[in-house]
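Per-record layout

source: Timema shepardi
name: Thiamin pyrophosphokinase thiamin-binding domain-containing protein
length: 261
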Amino acid sequence: MMNGVKEYKWNPVEFLNPKNTSLKYALLILNRPINYNHDSMISLWNRATVRVTVDGGTNNWFHFLNQEDALSKIDHHTPHIICGDMDSLEPKASQFFVGANMVETPDQDETDFTKALRVLDAYLKDDHTKVDGVVVLCDTSGRFDQIVANINTLYKAEGILGSLPVYQLAQDSLTWVLTPGTHAISVPDILRRHQCWCSLVPFGSRAKCVTTKGLKWDLDGQSMEFGKLLSTSNTYSDKPVVTVQTDTTLTWSMGLGTVEN
């Protein structure tokens, strides 16, 4: 913290690096089709410290295991936890994953994603397990209301998991929340060379003052809000780190291009 301003460093693409075994993370699979690269998905699962499938996400994991030679490459195919209101869970998937800790969360005032973070928080505390982050596999296509609900959960995550970062991983993008303060985001060289897209969006409230360095179209103390300026379809300069200084919580999203391969 400098002059009362919180400072954060981000390098979440390292969670996707199959050679990186030092980072510990929890993996959540939500109820969306698994469109992530096949071999990368296997690596992501195998390297996870805690594995959670959320309601219908359990079905998707079950069907993934029946593709190609997936099952033979998986170290432990059964998740540590299966949770949700269970209205989408197929009996054959439930029977296949005998041994998983089944946690039913019937409360309809929260989404299965939000409730899964609460279940995960309890598990980490009870099991005295420490992780460096939470990777949530959830493709961003499909119903708009569910896409927005997932972003809402990202905003709620700090109130559930404290400072533990939560990243939403889609087929070709990574999204997380930047709270007020100064953020340094490491950008892999391949994303800069291919001029992959990135964006900064304030959901729910106006950002009065946002300054960036390292983007092709930087912001310089500008405000952002819906109906006015938003930083979408942006990309990178040649700098390896993007810095973002913000007075308001923002959603940062970055295209992955072929980095997951």
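summary: The two ends are 35 Å apart (CA to CA). The mean pLDDT is 93.
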